Each structure stands twice: as structure tokens, then as C-alpha cells.
Amino acid sequence: MECPGVKISKEQVAISLEIPNFLPDEVQVKTVGDELIILGSRHDDGEDVVQGLGGTGSCGKIGVKANFTRKYPLPLNSKKDAIYCEFSQNIGKDSPTLRVIVPRVPSVVGDEEIEHVINIV
Q1: Domain-located, residue 121
Q2: Which of 9, 39, 41, 115 shows the smallest number of beta carbons within 10 Å?
Q3: In degrees, to the nearest 5, what angle opens at C-alpha 110 toward C-alphas 107 and 116?
Q4: Any signal peptide, and if so, which residues (predicted)?
Q5: 1 inside domain
């Protein structure tokens, strides 16, 4: 089964994720066990707002807080130490996109498959 934004080949797994309103320093990518986890967290304190007629009344701030978490299972032959990310922001076009590349160890040499014998204990 395929997930939207995920392309799987023998060489790599490529994940593309649109992250509108997030900057690179507000996003974290990490692996935990056999999962790739992408976290986004942003908090904008906003502007001072005066409520009431003629500028009298209570004052406060309107802020924005946004979080997201995405988890993806990693293939067994993933090279976790070689994972890298690209952030692209096309102003005026699409939302900012985070692209995560997970290289894979080849499981095929030439046209032959590598055989792994598993001992039964």
C-alpha cells in the first residue's frame, strides 16, 4: 500500500511533506527504532489587541500555536546514518515542502538476490 507523498525504490525512500507556515528551524526530523518521525512546532505571540470602543477596554495578545507529527515505518535495509532532508520554499507558488531521503542498502547484487540464512535456535 502506498502513502501519498512517499516514493519507494530499491535505492531509497523519498518522503515529501507540505508544511505550510513552518520554517526549517520549527521542524525536527529523527528516527526512533524503526520509525522516521517528523515533528513541527511553532508559536507566534502575535500582536497586542485593544478591545472596546475608542481604544478603551481590555488588552491582550492574539497568537498562533501549531503542531504536527508524522510517523513513517522505515524499511529494514534503511541506512539511518545517511538520511538527509531538503527544505524548499517556493514563494508565491506551493506551500513550503520538506523532502526526506532515506537511502537503502541494496539487497540485490547484479541480477542475483542476496540470500540470508537464518539459524533456527
Answers
A1: no
A2: 115
A3: 35
A4: none
A5: no
Domain contains 119: no
Confidence of residue 43 (pLDDT cuts 50, 70, 90): confident
Measured distance CA(9)–CA(64) in Å, rounded: 39
Domain that holds residue 57: 6-113
Q: Which one-letter amino acid corresponds to residue 108? A: V
Query: Given strand 59-73, what is the order of strands in its sheet?
Result: 27-32, 35-50, 59-73
Q: Which residue from 100, 98, 113 is spatially nearest to 13, judged by alpha carbons? A: 100
Question: Is residue 38 a part of any domain in this protein?
Answer: yes
pLDDT tens digit sequence for 15-36: 999 998 888 899 999 999 999 9
Residue 98: alpha-carbon gap to chain centroid: 6
- Whether 55 has a pLDDT exceeding 90, the answer reads no
CATH number at residue 78: 2.60.40.790
